[in-house]
Each structure stands twice: as C-alpha cells, then as structure tokens.
Design goal:
- This protein has about 160 residues and is of the alpha/beta class.
- It has one domain: 3-Layer(aba) Sandwich (Rossmann fold).
- The protein is built from six helices and seven strands.
- The longest helix is centred in the last third of the chain and has 34 residues.
C-alpha cells in the first residue's frame, strides 16, 4: 500500500467441530475472545461474529460461513479474521476458491495464530503452505487410523460404533 492505512471492517469467524472441541479445546468463546483482542489492538471495526458450532471444515457448505461470504460480497466487511486457518478450511481446493473470492471482492484474510495476512504477497504464500500442511496432517491421521483398525481386526477386536 502507498503508506495510507486501510480501515478494516471485519467478520470474525470462530468455528469448532465436535471433534475439535473435544480433542484440542478450541472453544468458540476462546477463539472469539482472542480475535476481539486482535481487533482492539489493530483498530479493526467488528461488523459481525459468525459463530459456527459443531460443523466440519471439510466443505464450504456451512450456514455462517455462507452468510459471512455473502456479507463480504455485499460490501459489509473487507477483512475476515480466523483464529487458525484450519478454522476456515482444511481443503486446498476450497482455499483456492476462497482466495479467488476474496481477491475478487477486495477482502483480506487474517489468521491470529499463524500470523497470516493476505494483504501482503508473503501472507498469501504462508496461507497456502499452512493449508497444504493441514491437509497432509489429515491424510496422515487417516492412514494411522486405518492401520490401527486393521491391526485391531487382525487381533479379533471389533470397534464399537
């Protein structure tokens, strides 16, 4: 930017799936509190908080996510804040789609934990790398789970539903 400070009106997007909250303790309240502190620190104006509870990031078909994207398209927000990038998406393909939409509507994305900010080229690079690593971790976890289930089945242990 040419030295002028952009005034950001943000949409805060905290999300948890049931598994996330039980495994990692990323509560909606903790995410929202952290993002509100970031807004206070950086002088961002909060338009709305889009709390998404018990919903996976495996697809973009999420009610609050869709509402936030529509508000962005309507010009109500010009920055989306997430606690961690995997709160927004865990899919490389979805990330690329989101990046294109953000670019088309001149909206930035910022992640509190990874210090990702798409208002800079290096921020876009780090966002893409972080998503690639998140997808790798999902695939590795799936492999370990399948391997463990096969081992249990060979020993005669049947997993319960």
């Amino acid at each position: 930017m040419n030295g002028e400070k952009k005034n950001f009106v943000v949409g805060i997007y905290p999300r948890v799936s049931t598994d996330d909250q039980s495994r990692f303790g990323f509560s909606l309240d903790e995410q929202e509190e952290s993002l509100r502190r970031l807004c206070d620190y950086k002088g961002y104006k909060i338009y709305k908080v889009y709390r998404e509870e018990g919903v996976s990031a495996k697809s973009m078909n999420r009610p609050k996510f869709k509402e936030m994207i529509q508000d962005m398209k309507d010009g109500k927000i010009n920055k989306i804040l997430v606690y961690k990038l995997d709160r927004l998406t865990r899919s490389i393909q979805d990330l690329e789609t989101i990046c294109k939409i953000l670019e088309e509507y001149h909206c930035d994305l910022e992640s509190d934990c990874e210090e990702i900010n798409t208002s800079t080229p290096i921020g876009v690079f780090f966002m893409r790398m972080t998503t690639i690593l998140a997808q790798l971790e999902i695939e590795r976890t799936s492999e370990r789970t399948k391997f463990g289930l096969m081992g249990a089945a060979k020993k005669g242990h049947v997993p319960r539903a």
